[in-house]
Input
Amino acid sequence: MTGGAGFIGSNFVRLANKQNPDWQIEILDKLTYAGNPQNLDGLDPTKVHLTKGDICDNELVDTLVKDCDAVIHFAAESHNDNSLTSPWPFVETNIVGTYTLLEAVRKYEKRYHHISTDEVYGDLELDDPHKFTEDTPYMPSSPYSSTKAGSDHLVRAWIRSFGIQATISNCSNNYGPYQHVEKFIPRQITNILLGDRPKLYGSGENVRDWIHVDDHNSAVLAILDKGKLSETYMIGANGEKNNKEVLEQILEIMGQPKDAYDHVSDRPGHDLRYAIDASKLKNELGWQPKYTDFASGITATIEWYKNNRSWWEPLKAQTEKKYQELGR
Ligand code: NAD
Ligand code: TDX
Output
């Protein structure tokens, strides 16, 4: 798998190792600012191995893919705000990196699963009765989402033109342990823990469809196990909430007044709403989310950040400096 030292990837390694203790998991990760080998601490080194390297390095990718049974591709440049200030790493990793993996799985005829996002479909109006499905047309808004859309198109073309054995999943916003402090939920929790005020972009009416990271990953395992080749699956857990509601809930759980935050300038091109219809995954593969109560999922996540200050404190100053420069 790629990107196993990042947020979702490292949680995937833990879950996969627990559910399939016989699997040998080889991780390829560049260890960018978003990757941390400590995220894999405590895992059995005879079962989980990390190779530091770039998914754009075709010789390295060739060597690793040759010896595996399946490739699960999590690695990406993943943060929208970064894509607005420096888009090139997004084009390189998300598009050229995916191309490099696809060429290797084509050469060695390996099973491939592609991790993607709901952001490839653009955004919805707040009152739109429709949600994103596997048939929603692509309409990405940001450099991040457009490079993820580009990578999805490469996978679809490699399936149709070369017959590779692949599946794609498009998931909504994840939360849970090990998420970088640049992202919305960890940024606000860690601000509060440091005595700083949380920062809400614009009016805070933007809606995200929150899913616990373990539910995303259990869906990926279900697709690997039972998914139909060439198919795309939407992953979501009916977790729609606007940013203001999420922030107020975090403040309340952490014993702060509900209005103890700052409104800051909005993200350019900010998508208004994402919402996922995961019926296909549920009906065809029998998948169900476990974390259906957002309040308890977010409370456990807050506890994790309280108890793991040494994990996030070294990341905080530099992340906030970048936001300060952006006025956000
Ligand atoms: P992350 O930024 O936390 O982790 C990304 C990982 O990829 C890091 O370990 C990083 O070192 C590695 N990486 C980056 N560039 C690389 C390269 N060129 N070669 C090798 N490794 C490289 O990201 P995340 O939030 O865990 O997201 C993982 C995947 O899930 C991404 O594909 C993302 O688009 C997708 N996704 C994320 C969310 C979300 O809410 N975070 C939702 C839906 C889909
Ligand atoms: O400080 C903040 N204040 C704020 O109001 C930050 C960092 C964000 N926001 C808003 C912007 C979004 O509406 O919160 C929402 C969530 O922001 P992010 O955590 O940056 O996530 P988003 O842009 O929605 O994208 C995430 O979900 C889909 C992941 O980062 C992507 O990798 C994934 O594809």
Q: What stands out?
A: Residues 78-80, 117, 119, 173, 183-184, 187, 199-201, 206, 208, 243, 267 surround thymidine-5'-diphospho-beta-D-xylose (ligand 2) (CB under 6 Å).
